[in-house]
Amino acid sequence: MVGVPEVQDPTLASAALRRYVASTPPELLDPAAIAFFGALDAVGAALPDIASSIAAELGDQRSNIKLIASENYSSLAVQLAQGTLLTDKYAEGVPGHRFYAGCDNVDAIERRAADLARKVFGADHAYVQPHSGADANLVAFLAVLSQTVEAPTLARLGHTNLAELPEPAWEALRREIVGQRLLGMDLYSGGHLTHGYRHNVSARLFEAHSYTVDRETGFLDFDTIVRQARALRPRILMAGYSAYPRRIDFARFRELADEIGAAFVVDMAHFAGLVAGKVFTGVHDPVPHAHIVTTTTHKTLRGPRGGMVLCSSEYADAIDKGCPLVLGGPLPHAIAAKAVALHEAGLPDFGRYAHAVVDNARELADRLRGHGGRVVTGGTENHLVLLDVATSYGLTGRQAESALRSCGLTLNRNALAFDPNGPWYASGLRLGTAAVTTLGMGAAEMHEIAGIIHDVLTPAQPVDGSRARFDLPDSAVAAARARVAVLLDRHPLYPEIDLGLLAPGVAG
Ligand SMILES: Cc1ncc(COP(=O)(O)O)c(C=O)c1O
């Protein structure tokens, strides 16, 4: 191909693939493993260090237990759908109405992904273009503003095209658009920064207000939210979280939104898989209750990194204008991978998986409490657990996070509501069970993981009043690492891939 450099080292190209094919009986050859080795060979022949980092990441994820609540392990089919020539396509617009020629195949892919999303979630409409959860929220916000603020003003002024509005009228409208109120869950109570955190564009676009959890119980107090919402009368009432271990009654939120004339937007980025898998049903399923539901596709839903918006028919046209409202061209390769993931999420196995995720989180919370740990709200009803390590072990979240990582457990520190340690050092850990459940772990493994966590955090000691440094005896590290290795050996990640087959330069 013109302008594409020659392969740097032709002996590297397809070395792993050839070794795999030579060492595997033909009837056992796995198409995903062939594709993985072929991809690494091809990337490694062009840029060995990138191939090597990809392989090293698989090694890392195989030797550490992943308890990051916002991550998962997507299927190799999902990953491979992304690694295709679809990345080369521009397709601004929506299926059947593009600003580029040659989009027939992208149309088919986007239609399929949207159909699957509608089916899995029982939604009137799905828009699968957002590149991320943050983008999906911006699309939702701007669609509400365009439908409820911009459109009535244009109609009043007798215009149909914003671009043709005279300058003074546009400036007045622009000020009206950015003067609207948003009420969402406070970041430090478990909300997300895109829900009105001052350092995020959401707080610059809106007059943003937030509700918190109750200081004593850690639960959302709906009566307080009602009082706040009645007083503020926001344009958008928002629910959804990144670090709240309980279910939410979305029917009550919708009633409140209707009473105050707000659009009700739910960000289900964290628990989309629990909705797809029918763990959250009735009043806990946001889709029948919210005007608009936004999500990521890569957390409990177990798809590729990306975002998505579901909405009732009344918002469909406004949401479909995500480009040009927020986005440029869609990512057709990511949309193809979303289609594969949504297909997987519609299978009966996924329902069993989603229920097991929540069972595992409950077991983990119970076991941590059994060891004397303080778990925020006393337990969990979803995929995540918040452990107060300051109260339980005299550590900051940062110290606990680093201590556990040194022992083979990957998770993240998390500020607790009203946290005196702030978000950087924090007083809590956020643990999630989506990834370990994908590996097939169950109650016995949760029991063991809780024991490892307790046996690491108990001997860990802060050093010299530092909120980052800590001491942890080598013996505790070695013992924990050995226990982690036993769990991971029994539950290997992508067992069809033997990293030993990679060329030395690629395997690192
Ligand atoms: C509730 C919630 N919304 C939105 C996002 C943003 O998603 P992304 O990182 O894909 O932009 C996250 C990510 O953690 C989240 O937890």
Description of the molecule:
With 508 residues, the chain is α/β, with parallel strands linked by helices. Strand 16 and strand 17 form a beta hairpin. The site of pyridoxal-5'-phosphate (PLP) has 14 residues, from helix 6. Belongs to the SHMT family. It catalyses: (6R)-5,10-methylene-5,6,7,8-tetrahydrofolate + glycine + H2O = (6S)-5,6,7,8-tetrahydrofolate + L-serine.
Fill in the keyword field for this structure:
about 500 residues; binds pyridoxal-5'-phosphate; Aspartate Aminotransferase, domain 1; Aspartate Aminotransferase, domain 2; single chain; alpha/beta
Question: From the 3D coordinates, which CATH architecture of the largest domain would you assign?
Answer: 3-Layer(aba) Sandwich
The domain tally reads 3
Q: So how many helices?
A: 22
Q: Indicate the CATH class of the largest domain.
A: Alpha Beta
What value does the Rg take, in angstroms? 24 Å
* Gross morphology: globular
Largest sheet: 7 strands, mixed
- Average pLDDT across residues? 95
Kindly identify the CATH topology of the largest domain: Aspartate Aminotransferase, domain 2
Which ligands does the model contain, each kind named once? pyridoxal-5'-phosphate
Q: What portion of residues belong to β-strands?
A: 5-15%
From the N-terminal CA to the C-terminal CA, the straight-line distance is: 29 Å
Structural class: alpha/beta
CATH H-level homologous superfamily name of the largest domain:
Type I PLP-dependent aspartate aminotransferase-like (Major domain)
Q: Say how many strands there are.
A: 17
Which stretches of 5+ consecutive residues score pLDDT under 50? none
Percentage of helical residues? 40-55%
Family: Belongs to the SHMT family.
Enzyme class: transferase
GO molecular function, one term: glycine hydroxymethyltransferase activity
Protein name: Serine hydroxymethyltransferase
